[in-house]
Structure formats: C-alpha cells, structure tokens
Amino acid sequence: SEMLNGDVDFVQLQDLDWVILAEIDYEEAMIPIRSYGYNIIYIALILSMLLLGVVAILSNTITAPLRRLRKETEKISEGDYSPLEDIKADGAIKDLIQSYNHMVRKIKEQQDNLQIARDKSISSMIDGQESERSRLAMELHDGLAQTILAIKMRLENTAPEKAAKVLHESKEMFADLMHEIRSMSNDLLPAVLR
User: Fold this and answer.
1) For the whole model, what pTM was predicted?
2) Where is pLDDT greater, at 47 or 95?
C-alpha cells in the first residue's frame, strides 16, 4: 500500500482494475453504530417491560387462587364452612382446592357432631336434674313431711298425763328426722364433690 496525499491509503488487489477510496471521520462513522446501539437498548427495554408484564399476569393468575384460598381459610375461624366452587385452576392448585373443600366438609361434619353431642349432653343433664328434683320432692313429701306431720299430730292429740312420754318419743322422732335430713343433704352433695 502507498500513501496518496498523505491521508488516503491505496490498496492494490489482485485481478482488480479499479479502486474505491473513501474518507470518513471516526465520529461520523460511529453515528449509525450508536444509533443501532440505542435502538437495541430501546428494544431491550420494551421487551423486558413486556416480559415483566407477562410474568406479572402469569404470576397473578397463579397466585390469585392461592390468595382467595387464604381468605377462605380465615373464614373458617369465623364459622363459615362454605366450600370453594368458583375458582378456576388446574394442576396442583386444583388439587389443593379440592383438598381444602374436603377439609371444610370434614370440619363442618365434626362441628355438627359436636353440636349434636353438646345438645344431647345438655338434654341429659337437664333430664338428670329433673329426675333428681322429682326424687328429692318425693323424699321430702313421703319421708320428711310425713314424719313432721306425725310428730305434729302426736303433740296435738296428747293427753296431759302422757305428755312426758310423747315428748320423749317426739325427741327421738326429731333425731331420726335430723338424721334423714343429713342423709338427704349428703346425697345431694357427696363428700367426693366437697
């Protein structure tokens, strides 16, 4: 290669009869390259924003059923046992929702069974109390009231000459009566409960 006019290189190529010479400034030559670089950066930004949007939409469609499931589990603590019916999902999330619905049905059944058992227990307790009250009323009427009535009648119909004997018998009857009252009292509240 030879230098022509000091700043142009002459290139000789084999079997070539003509030569193209071009002179261009470095900054001028870099303009299209920079333009392509900026275009690539803009395209990359647009593509990354599109990709970010697609990822956000996909993650929202995946996590939306999970967020809804979480809200529904909070409702269980408030006593709402309604199953999830209107969530569209597939794969593992669908299996999770089916498991949740199964769990909700089981909890509802257990709550219902507990309520039935609680109602039966209360009913049994009330029946037991009524039975105990009936027994106590019968003991008071048939036992204590009869003894008190017998003592009263004896004291009222006693001749003065037999008063000492009747008084002694009445004292014994009152002692028996006190013993019976203590026995009834112990039956109402056994020593074990005391």
Assistant:
1) 0.47
2) 47
